[in-house]
Amino acid sequence: MCATCGCGDETGTRITVPHEHPHDHEHPHDHEHPHDHEHPHEHPHTHEHATETETVTLEQKVLAKNDLTAERNRGWLAGRGVLALNVMSSPGSGKTTLLERTIADIGGQRRVSVVEGDQETMLDANRIKATGCAVVQVNTGAGCHLDAEMMRDALTALDPEPNSLLFIENVGNLVCPALFDLGEKSRVVVISVTEGTDKPLKYPHMFAAANLVIVNKADLLPYVDFDVDLCTKYARSVNPDLQMITLSATTGQGIQQWYDWIAKQ
Ligand SMILES: Nc1nc2c(ncn2[C@@H]2O[C@H](COP(=O)(O)OP(=O)(O)OP(=O)(O)O)[C@@H](O)[C@H]2O)c(=O)[nH]1
Ligand SMILES: [Zn+2]
Ligand SMILES: [Zn+2]
Ligand SMILES: [Zn+2]
Ligand SMILES: [Zn+2]
């Protein structure tokens, strides 16, 4: 677990048992039933929440430092005319597969390089390397996201060519990566049709911070219960400006929309 973003820290955890009787907080029932509510309610108490306060302060400091480094990265990239796209998703939704095909299809027209993020292994970097593209792998160990310092070090190691295209494949995780600006131009979230229509509602921060959502594995739509229109509606309920593209990284159906989107960035 990662100490910086507070995952694994239980102070912010809420446990709510859904129950059937909508009430206005008067609780005039005579039985005892301890429960938590989704909505904020008063609980006047006199003890200090020292630990919570410290955690919040530390998190704010970490994020402020991250954002400063991210701005430096952004300047560094802009100075070279490098277009950086941060690609995020849950594990296995198809980020590396999409990048492999993208490099094969448009790598001839424009230089491409890749920063690969994973907790362990060089597997993804090796897959990208096999396409002939420059790549660095960032292994985060216990960490669940890339941060701006990792990005800075990766950029130094990669040294992308002026006016090239840089893909950042973030660690497979729909939660923490949303918090960390890396200095990228745009954020792309990949979800696949096997994950369920409700992902944008369950991981709203990720979708709120995105510029584009790719619904991948469209070739599997006939076999799974996934509603693209409803997913689009959910995604736009957390971020009305979201662009949505449905495609298949393996068959290539719909993929031209992705290349058109990149060309417009
Ligand atoms: N049917 C189908 N399978 C796909 C598609 N894209 C990827 N896959 C498969 O999904 C699996 C995971 O794909 P990856 O590209 O490794 O996923 P990833 O998002 O890079 O995974 P992590 O790096 O572990 O987060 C592989 O077995 C792919 O072949 C697609 O469009 N259709
Ligand atoms: Zn985490
Ligand atoms: Zn009640
Ligand atoms: Zn991958
Ligand atoms: Zn984290």
Automatic annotation (TrEMBL):
Domain of life: Bacteria
Keyword GTP-binding among record annotations: yes
Chain ranges of the CobW/HypB/UreG nucleotide-binding domain: 86-245
Parts of the chain that traverse the membrane: none
Biased composition (Basic and acidic residues): 17-52
Keyword Lipid biosynthesis applies: no
Chain residue ranges for the region called Disordered: 16-53
Protein name in the entry: Hydrogenase nickel incorporation protein HypB
